Amino acid sequence: MRIIETEVRDLYIIEPKIYGDHRGWFMETWSRRSFEDAGLDYVFVQDNHSFSAKKNTIRGLHFQKGEFAQAKLVRCTRGKVLDVAVDIRKGSPTFLKWAAVELSAENKRQLLIPRGFAHGFLTLTDDVEFLYKADNLYAPTSEGSILWCDPEIGITWEVKDPIIAEKDVHAPLFKDCNVNFAYEVKK
Q: Where do the H-state alpha helices sit in the chain?
């Protein structure tokens, strides 16, 4: 498993080793030992699976607040997405910076998103299946969102007329969110 730093602090691309032969392939998508060896301490407690039927669907930008904040390990198992994570931790050297990574069934890459990040993705194909591992249980009352096209963040989605859920169309700008994430320096 290869762990690649992005330009955004604490956000990592995970490339699993693929073992293939004439029958197909095998990969380890999660190993607590491999993550701990890399200095990443996560215990995942919930798996989620989403399906998006149409290309140009945007889901996000979402996060969970307070005691229900979640770190996520995400991957695309069918189709292709542009996955985006935004650092919303006050005091972080990369505060309000974002990274976009193409995740697909073909490249088998994953993105490790720590607590204190907003997350979303754009489907680049029809019929996308997307999996999330989360280190905390989902709590509807702690759900937060930021408008996907917030100019203060300036994500380059490169899509015209995206398909967006009503709740995401009406999400607030970051400046109007009550976000209480604080950056913690790792020792």
A: 32-37, 166-169
Q: How confident is the model at residue 187 (pLDDT cuts 50, 70, 90)?
A: low
Choose the catalytic residue: 62, 119, 138, 170: 62
Domains and CATH numbers, the chain: 2-176 (2.60.120.10)
pLDDT in tens, 12-70: 999 999 999 999 999 999 989 999 999 999 999 999 999 999 999 999 999 999 999 99
Return the half-sphere exposure (C-beta side, CA atoms, 13 A cut-off) of residue 179. Answer: 27
Catalytic residue among 132, 138, 170, 183: 132
Question: Per the structure block, which two tokens stand in for 73?
Answer: 């390990």
Q: Look up tokens 């995401």; give the residue.
A: 168
**Residue whose token pair is 């009406």:** 170
CA-to-CA dists, residue 35 to 1, 29, 101, 145, angstroms: 9, 11, 20, 28
Whole-angstrom CA distances from 94 to 9, 24, 88 are 6, 40, 9
Instruction: Confirm whether 132 is a catalytic residue.
Output: yes
